[in-house]
């Protein structure tokens, strides 16, 4: 192996296709159900919300889906993204482990989110859509869709969770700089929003509420569709450009990961890195350890129930089988805003049930300690979400040292923390509060599950 | 020419040397003078502040200075940086011009500053220094030196202009995340600071004051040296890694710039890109247009006097001949904090006198309009400083369209604006105030110039 720290790919090696893990699964995931009938939904049920190309991708079992040239052309602005060898971190930990990370923070909005935002904007534009609605928590997704809308000439309306709207003016500023319109959620613009405000005038909102509002705003208008930044199959698939690149870069290192690590909120950055590696392992009947890392305060994979649930608080979405804390669950405030979702992507949940990945949860103080250590050694301030992956990586590297084994670890550094400095300031001041999700909370949240058990 | 938009260099093409323009000048720049004697200073005068390796570089006339392997090893984390072709901007402007930009925002702190911070930290460490002091305005420099200190195990104390300390907590948080200590300037820790506070208890500080404090704090201690982020020859030289890479990348494009553009505060990012190209033009007796762009509110090159002046408000530094607005000049508040310095790098001033570059000034509202246009097309939010270069580039591209000439323009996108979103929010809200520097201000500031006229 060489002494390189950074593995860059020439533009000519930008992947030509996304990878669809549905092609390689030992058994298919459960159907998506209509909440009224309890029966599997069809394309017509989704047509008011998504363009047909996206609906087709959502249910496709083709292994490779060609990335349109118009999308690749936009990807080229920041893709292929670099893959690093964390040599200074290895030295500081005195570990025999070889630590690699894929860095998605070089994108226009500093995270992996534009990988699917650009694709979704393209397919909507191609089918004549004029306006997209969406929700955003911390703002990574909203800013990414605003950027994609600017590129393809689409209006973008973003329902931003009220707490973030008030506390994260810079992310809001980024959405607006890219030309998006930001609405604090709950808002007076939708029935769902008005109903919530009537009961709770001071509601600070939640991702589940904002999804309901964005869905409601899109459904009745011909020229408007809805766009989701995680959870669904097509979103996870668009993110596999990350793992497809990483496989080429690992080839360049002449090494191969024994362990893959990613943080999970809805599941998209994790899937983007891991699915191509899991798929290869399935096809080659090989083993690879895959670790999903989530916040202890919103532990859907480690503490949730695997059940059919709504994707939103207003219950406008279909029912999906996933690890869920209940659609009415409002996570406590913590800084990894991108991980504050009550459910896990159905495909990630399915893989977990199949035993193809393991999950663990950390509190925010310990993940920020890991993030600061990483920043001072590697020169990149990770996003609070990514700190979860950093923490698990450091723990695995220490385990390698203690066991005297030299393994290769690859994690997804899914974004930078430039818009999250208040979190680092709070951490340095000892002000972070760690929430442990209690059994009472589990019971309360899960009591609200819909009765469908198909 | 190819259809590529991004030109990346493999790590193997990371430059092995910095370029020193002193080797190619038709006449040498004026000496630096001792403020007491009015005579040229020698190495001993600078030894309390800088390590000998740096002092040697400051006066060297060697064309190439080898980059130590320890510095190249750190550079590799983000260098070589990408060079882009701005195809979407070209299309939007309907210009026959070919627009290229070198992007330094991929560095650990999001600007070109680490190029010299890492080198300075290395040379100080190599000579046994334990602690570095410095000043910072907007925070780009302070965070970069804190990062470099973390890498080489040096304490870093940063005097941060009080106005920024209060208004830019996120840049301060970044410095602290990298392990640096931040002191609001003026402070009670120095004689200069205490004297200012005695007279103006509510002083919001200035870069000139902060320099005085950092210099005072370094001079008496054996284990402590001072570090400057711009203006001096060695700083500008360390930045030429930008232009050296850009020359290789332009070779890859099979094109060559007719026009080079950079923003100027102290002059370092501009010099870093331009000097290697100017040097080549001098050696080959070729012509290249080079444009330095500054804020209309702090117009040292376009409105200042070319005279000997102090680098700081407290008059602790030697006298350098430069374009200056007077060392007591406190620029009005505007958002490009990195361009709020009363003087211009002596070497840049000298080149201007020799007719090797031209200068122009813009107000902040027009540069933010250019920056927003660029962001929506190219997907990068430029730093407020860099918006000056973007504005000049757009103006030149429009001129090309109007004149029907196809020229190649290369500008330095010296950093991203992730820590400057308040400026974009203020711009969108129509709250930016444009200051034009008046003749009265010129007279007032220049009346305070020292009487040395050598």
Task: Give an account of the 3D structure.
- Chain A has helices at residues 43-46, 52-59, 69-75, 87-93, 114-126, 140-152, 162-167, 169-177, 191-199, 207-218, 233-238, 240-253, 268-283, 300-303, 346-353, 364-378, 384-403, 421-428, 439-446, and strands spanning 6-7, 17-19, 64-66, 83-85, 98-103, 131-136, 155-161, 181-185, 224-226, 259-263, 289-295, 305-310, 319-324, 358-362, 408-413.
- Chain A is α/β, with parallel strands linked by helices and 454 residues long.
- In chain A, strands 1-4-5-15-10-11-14 form a seven-stranded mixed β-sheet, sandwiched between helices. In chain A, strands 8-7-6-9 form a four-stranded parallel β-sheet, sandwiched between helices. A two-stranded antiparallel ribbon of chain A has the order 2-3.
- The longest helix of chain A has 20 residues, at 384-403.
- Chains A and B meet through helix 6, helix 8, helix 16 and helix 18 of A and helix 6, helix 8, helix 16 and helix 18 of B.
List the topology elements.
Two copies of one chain form a homodimer.
Chain A (H helix, E strand, L loop, with lengths): L5 E2 L9 E3 L23 H4 L5 H8 L4 E3 L2 H7 L7 E3 L1 H7 L4 E6 L10 H13 L4 E6 L3 H13 L2 E7 H6 L1 H9 L3 E5 L5 H9 L7 H12 L5 E3 L6 H6 L1 H14 L5 E5 L4 H16 L5 E7 L4 H4 L1 E6 L8 E6 L21 H8 L4 E5 L1 H15 L5 H20 L4 E6 L7 H8 L10 H8 L8
Parallel strand pairs in A: 5-15, 6-7, 6-9, 7-8, 10-11, 10-15, 11-14
Antiparallel strand pairs in A: 1-4, 2-3, 4-5, 12-13
Helix pairs in contact in A: 3-5, 4-16, 5-6, 6-8, 12-13, 16-17
């Amino acid at each position: 192996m060489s002494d390189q720290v950074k593995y860059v790919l020439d533009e000519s090696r930008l992947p030509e296709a996304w990878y669809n893990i549905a092609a390689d699964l030992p058994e298919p995931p459960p159907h998506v159900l209509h909440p009224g009938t309890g029966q599997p939904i069809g394309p017509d049920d989704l047509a008011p919300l998504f363009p047909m190309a996206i609906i087709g991708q959502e249910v496709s079992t083709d292994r490779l889906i060609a990335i349109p040239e118009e999308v690749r052309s936009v990807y080229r602005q920041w893709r292929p993204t670099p893959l690093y060898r964390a040599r200074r971190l290895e030295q500081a930990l005195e570990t025999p482990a070889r630590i690699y990370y894929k860095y998605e923070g070089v994108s226009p909005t500093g995270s992996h989110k534009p990988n699917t935002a650009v694709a979704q904007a393209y397919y909507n534009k191609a089918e004549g859509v004029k306006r997209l609605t969406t929700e955003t928590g911390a703002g990574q997704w909203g800013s990414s869709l605003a950027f994609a809308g600017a590129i393809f000439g689409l209006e973008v309306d973003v329902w931003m969770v009220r707490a973030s709207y008030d506390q994260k003016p810079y992310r809001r500023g980024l959405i607006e700089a890219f030309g998006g319109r930001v609405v604090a959620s709950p808002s007076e613009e939708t029935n769902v929003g008005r109903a919530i405000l009537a009961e709770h005038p001071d509601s600070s909102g939640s991702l589940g509420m904002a999804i309901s509002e964005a869905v409601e705003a899109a459904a009745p208008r011909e020229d408007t569709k809805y766009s989701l930044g995680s959870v669904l199959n097509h979103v996870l698939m668009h993110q596999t450009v990350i793992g497809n690149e990483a496989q080429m870069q690992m080839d360049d290192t002449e090494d191969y990961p024994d362990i893959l690590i990613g943080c999970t909120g809805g599941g998209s950055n994790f899937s983007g890195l891991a699915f191509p590696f899991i798929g290869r392992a399935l096809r080659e009947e090989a083993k690879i350890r895959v670790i999903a890392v989530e916040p202890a305060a919103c532990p859907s994979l480690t503490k949730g129930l695997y059940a059919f649930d709504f994707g939103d608080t207003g219950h406008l979405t279909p029912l999906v089988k996933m690890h869920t804390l209940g659609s009415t669950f409002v996570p406590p405030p913590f800084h990894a805003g991108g991980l504050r979702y009550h459910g896990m992507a159905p495909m990630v949940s399915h893989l977990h049930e199949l035993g193809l990945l393991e999950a663990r949860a950390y509190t925010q103080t310990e993940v920020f300690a890991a993030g600061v250590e990483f920043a001072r050694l590697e020169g990149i301030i990770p996003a609070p979400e990514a700190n979860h992956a950093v923490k698990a990586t450091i723990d695995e590297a220490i385990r390698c040292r203690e066991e005297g084994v030299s393994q290769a670890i690859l994690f997804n550094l899914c974004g930078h923390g430039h818009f999250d400095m208040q979190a680092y300031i709070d951490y340095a001041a000892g002000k972070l509060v760690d929430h442990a999700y209690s059994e009472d909370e589990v019971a309360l949240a899960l009591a609200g599950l819909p009765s469908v058990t198909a």
